[in-house]
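Data card: per-record layout.
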Amino acid sequence: MEKIPMTRAGAQALETELKHLKTVERPAIIKAIAEAREHGDLSENAEYHSAKEKQSFIEGRVKELEGVISLADVIDPAKMSGAIKFGATVTLVDEDTDEEKTYQIVGEYEANIEKGLLNIKSPIARALIGKEEGDSVEVRTPGGEKSYEVLKISYS
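The structure for this 156-residue chain is written out next.
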């Protein structure tokens, strides 16, 4: 099996979610199923079917998280420096609009573009890997070609 690169914060977030699912969500759904069963005929019991569906989702997510965590290769960006690589926090300026954006390049399971966490497999991250401060980067995005200049690289 291939290791999954992840920052320490990303690994901790997945472990927290897994713990929550096992200690809070799972017992709550078991209780909800038991209560729905008490209402009688299961074939026409919407509460029961809804609870079973939610239980299926929770169990699937637990299995997924356990698998990801078991394959996690936790990387500490603070021990890195130099050109852009996994874990780097990069400040870019859009060469067309002069808009600045800051992203951290992270693993796919911790990526969240709204929080500035950029998936290592995304077109922007792939284009940035190996670049230095001052370099210009051309990225093909779903919205068309974009040009960025790397303003700052940090590892923390």
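Known properties of this structure: The radius of gyration is 21 Å. The longest helix spans residues 8-37.

See the next section for split statistics.
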